[in-house]
Design a protein that fits this description.
Blueprint (H helix, E strand, L loop, with lengths): L38 H25 L6 H13 L7 H11 L1 H18 L6 H19 L3 H7 L7 H12 L5 H23 L6 E3 H4 L2 H8 L5 E3 L2 H10 L1 H26 L5 E3 L2 E3 L6 H27 L1 H14 L18 H26 L4 H33 L4 H18 L4 H35 L3 H30 L2 E4 L2 E4 L7 H15 L5 H16 L4 H9 L2 H19 L4 H9 L1 H21 L16 E7 L5 E7 L1 H4 L1 H34 L1
Antiparallel strand pairs: 1-2, 3-4, 5-6, 7-8
Helix pairs in contact: 1-3, 1-4, 1-19, 1-25, 2-3, 2-7, 2-8, 3-18, 3-19, 4-5, 4-18, 4-19, 4-20, 5-15, 5-16, 5-18, 5-19, 6-18, 7-18, 8-25, 8-27, 11-23, 11-25, 12-13, 12-22, 12-23, 13-17, 13-20, 13-21, 13-22, 14-16, 15-16, 15-18, 16-17, 16-18, 17-18, 17-20, 18-20, 21-22, 23-24, ...
Length: 707
């Protein structure tokens, strides 16, 4: 790329390597006094953090995939900034985006690890979740600051920064346009919220569509041989598929087809005889098990093995980046900055403050571990101090080693290998803790908190390096981006600490099936957390584990890699319920139809460009409603969903331990063919409305470009 594509304000050397003696001059020069951190920019950013932290967490828990919050936040900053009496400056928009981006990265760090605590029957408090996310995120910030100049200035034009480039183009283009994008974002937000409110809160139709019901006798016959296609027809999943695109949505769905349409029926055919199958210390009567039971018992462990192996393969593929980044991290120790850099656009936090925050965050982790060990009442004070010190050191070292890796990966390929590095973190933490005598539930807790901190640090480091690059191109003050990022992290961590317990209370990560407590794969599958929970349980508690099934999954991951198919996407598809992946595929297919429509190349591109906005808005709206629906299922709202629902009758019941719980009884029309056909019709209607919305957005975009 020799010159900017849309950003007419950008210098010609914005995206290319500088010639000897040449320098890059940003849009806003170092000597210009332009409003940057203002009451408006901070408040706007905090609103974005609140919305997108909840949205990103919700979709990660329900579908196992994160969404990129930076682009819709940048669009929202431009749109609402233009509505002010005094239009917001481009630097204010940079700050909104920079603070707001904390939402997605903290949510990702939490969603990938925290549910593993619940899956191991551990109930963390809100403050434990908050501290794990906030302290880890803070380490991610201060560990990457010494490397800012190297990544964004010294290697200018060498590193492509794909995500930062997209954000930069939006912010720069927004100086002359941007109204249409904001309208599309808000409209799709309302569409997603309204649709999922009617589908999942009011229960006006049945979004859980199954071939067993819809296909009548044919579907019933297929069900007998354990072949059943489902679709969870809600806007949140449709939007996720739209933003993923047809290619990856199809790969994810292919993983489901292998799991549900091949492996599950095959298990029934091979082991469905009169003799029970005994495996990993458990006896299974396959002939009496339905497709869901077979999937949970045998296919999920295969998928977990595939997901874990996919993460390791990702690390192996990035070994050169990892090696060079670790070396770079050591070189960054003690580098001077801040006060010696006179130019505003090159001003970092003072090195003393950076080191102080590193120390405080690390000590904070140690105190958290100490309190956890003391509250367990199984250890002496001396043992608790020892475990806390070891956990503290492991947390810092792994954050220190991996944050440069995350930054360079984002700068080069736009993808953060966070799954693989988090898995390695949990394994290392578990082995070290076991070596010093800490195991069982407390050991699991400490290892998973370390995993949460490191995962959040990696996510934050990758996002922050993109922020720095955007600020470098436009002319923001790095120190302000760094300082105010902590506020975004704190608010995002609070949202996460509030939402995860609510989701558990309303839907439960663990549910009872056939007398056993198992993962709630239908509502809260959280695949990465399930993978981590299985690995750490095997390490910390011993007992018989389905290692053969894990090995089969690992072999599948290797074969898929050799076939040059994106391994993690395929493995996630094997783990997630097919109903989720079918809805994602529908969204991806709609995105493909939209991108291929239009009478000219320009019109096709304009329609395709609406994808991120439509999908992000739809997911955010649906996610907020999903969380509201969860709140309405809690006792402290008097189970208010009872007075809203049409298709399900909700009643309260007091169980043996005196706790009041909510039970639902679906109406006959809701579970029958008509309720599901109505759900299918409404889902098709959602796709049609999305298509029309993309056409409208493209028309407005082209009109703005011509004006």
């Amino acid at each position: 790329m020799n010159a900017p594509t849309k950003g007419r304000l950008l210098p010609a050397n914005a995206y290319r390597k500088l010639e000897p003696g040449e320098s890059y001059n940003p849009i806003i020069g170092a000597g210009q006094n332009v409003p940057e951190v203002t009451v408006w920019s901070v408040l706007m950013a905090l609103v974005m953090v609140l919305i997108f932290s909840a949205a990103c967490l919700y979709i990660a828990l329900r579908a196992g995939s994160g969404i990129e919050a930076a682009i819709p936040i940048a669009v929202a900053a431009i749109f609402f900034g233009r509505m002010r009496a005094k239009k917001s400056t481009i630097l204010e928009n940079v700050i909104v985006q920079s603070i707001g981006q904390a939402s997605g990265v903290v949510a990702a760090g939490a969603a990938f690890v925290i549910p593993a605590l619940y899956l191991n029957a551990i109930q963390p408090t809100w403050w434990q979740i908050f501290l794990a996310c906030f302290l880890g995120g803070s380490l991610g910030v201060v560990l990457i600051i010494p490397l800012r100049k190297y990544f964004v200035a010294d290697r200018h034009g060498e590193l492509p920064f794909p995500e930062a480039t997209a954000i930069n183009e939006i912010l720069v283009s927004g100086e002359s346009s941007g109204g249409s994008a904001g309208k599309i974002l808000l409209t799709s937000f309302g569409l997603g919220a309204a649709y999922d409110f009617l589908a999942e809160t009011v229960n006006a139709w049945n979004p859980g569509i199954s071939t067993t019901s819809v296909l009548g006798p044919v579907g019933e016959w297929l069900g007998k041989i354990r072949v059943e296609l489902k679709i969870n027809a809600i806007a949140a999943l449709f939007g996720l598929g739209y933003i993923i695109g047809l290619k990856y949505a199809a790969i994810i769905f292919a993983g489901s087809v292998v799991a549900y349409m091949i492996f599950v029926p095959l298990m029934g055919v091979i082991f469905g005889g009169p003799e029970p199958l005994v495996y990993a210390g458990v006896s299974y009567n396959i002939a009496e098990m339905n497709a869901g039971a077979i999937f949970s018992a045998f296919i999920k462990p295969i998928a977990i093995g595939a997901i874990a192996t996919a993460g390791v393969i990702g690390l192996i593929r990035m070994r050169k980046i990892i090696t060079s980044s670790v070396v770079l991290g050591f070189k960054g120790i003690g580098k001077k900055g801040g006060v010696s850099d006179v130019a505003r656009t090159n001003l970092d936090m003072k090195p003393a403050n950076v080191l102080l925050i590193q120390l405080l965050a690390t000590l904070g982790m140690g105190i958290l571990f100490f309190v956890v060990c003391v509250l367990a009442k199984d250890f002496t004070i001396g043992q608790s101090i020892l475990y806390a010190l070891i956990g503290m050191v492991i947390s810092f070292l792994l954050c220190f080693l991996f944050t440069p890796v995350a930054a360079e990966a984002i700068a080069i390929v736009g993808t953060n290998p966070v799954s693989g590095m988090t898995l390695v973190t949990v394994i290392i933490s578990s082995l070290v803790m076991m070596a010093v005598g800490l195991s069982g539930q407390t050991g699991i807790f400490v290892a998973l908190v370390i995993g949460t901190a490191v995962c959040t640090a990696l996510s934050v480091a990758g996002a922050l390096i993109s922020d720095f690059k955007v600020g470098y191109w436009i002319g923001a003050t790095p120190r302000k981006q760094q300082v105010w990022k902590f506020l975004g992290l704190a608010i995002a961590a609070l949202v996460v600490a509030f939402v995860i317990p609510i989701m558990d209370q309303a839907f439960h990560f663990l549910v009872e099936k056939n007398g056993a407590m198992v993962s709630n794969e239908d509502v809260l599958p959280a695949p990465q957390a399930n993978m981590i929970a299985a690995v750490i349980k095997g390490l910390m508690t011993g007992g018989q584990q389905p290692y053969l099934l894990y090995g089969i999954g690992a072999l599948i991951a290797v074969v898929v890699t050799l076939l040059k198919i994106p391994t993690l996407a395929f493995a996630l598809g094997m783990y997630l319920p097919i109903g989720i992946n079918a809805a994602v595929l529908a969204g991806g297919f709609t995105a493909w139809l939209v991108a291929g429509s239009g009478s000219s190349k320009r019109e096709k591109e304009a329609r395709a460009n609406q994808g991120t906005l439509i999908a992000s808005g739809m997911i955010a709206g649906a996610a907020i409603i999903g969380i509201v629906s969860a709140v309405l299922r809690l006792d402290w709202t008097s189970f208010a969903i009872r007075f809203i629902s049409i298709g399900k009758e909700f009643n309260t019941e007091t169980v043996a331990d005196g706790v009041t719980v909510l039970r639902d009884t679906p109406a006959a029309w809701y579970t029958g063919i008509w309720g599901q056909l109505l759900g299918l019709l409404m889902f098709v209607g959602l796709g049609v409305i999305t298509f029309v919305l993309a056409k409208w957005g493209a028309k407005m975009q082209m009109k703005e470009e011509d004006s």
